[in-house]
UniProtKB/TrEMBL annotation:
Protein's name in the database: TIM protein
Lineage: Eukaryota, Metazoa, Chordata, Craniata, Vertebrata
Top-rank lineage group of the source organism: Eukaryota
GO molecular function, one term: DNA binding
Gene: Timeless_0
Organism: Crypturellus soui
Biased composition regions of type Pro residues, renumbered to the chain: 135-145
């Protein structure tokens, strides 16, 4: 399960496990394409299943997309979120790995937080404040451990 042992595993019950895997695969595939082609262009994130379409409308999933460094549609002429050209293959692979790792969701940071060209609205902080409806694990040292 994504983020095993953390509060984000509860998002699987909300139907986000499959979209999280889809997003990780999409980021990895885009990283490979950028390495192979040697060029970077914005890539639309096109959901081809109903589960992924539903996730794209979920505010928690949208917060996660922003956290990863993806951009919402810029105008009425754009329908899809985009993987910006500025994200390097390494950043894309790191984001994909974080999405499917067993690390707590607080470890996921915006890949844009690494460099000087950090995107506006992509804080490198924990996802906790962005996902208020997700149940969080008990604090260390609590009775439930």
């Amino acid at each position: 399960t994504p983020w095993a042992g953390s509060g984000v595993t509860h998002s699987a019950h909300a139907g986000l496990a499959t979209p999280l895997q889809w997003l990780a695969n999409y980021l990895t595939r885009t990283a490979g394409d950028r390495e192979e082609d040697g060029i970077s262009q914005p890539v639309p994130l096109v959901p081809l299943s109903e589960a992924n379409e539903d996730a794209m409308e979920d505010r928690r999933f949208q917060a996660l997309l922003r956290k990863v460094g993806l951009r919402p549609p810029a105008s009425e002429q754009e329908s899809f979120w985009r993987i910006p050209a500025a994200l390097t293959p390494r950043q894309l692979r790191c984001a994909a790995a974080a999405l499917v790792s067993s690390e707590p969701h607080g470890a996921l940071r915006s890949p844009l937080a690494e460099g000087p060209g950090r995107a506006q609205g992509s804080p490198g902080a924990s996802l906790d404040p962005l996902l208020p409806s997700v149940e969080r694990p008990p604090p260390p040292g609590s009775d439930s451990e």
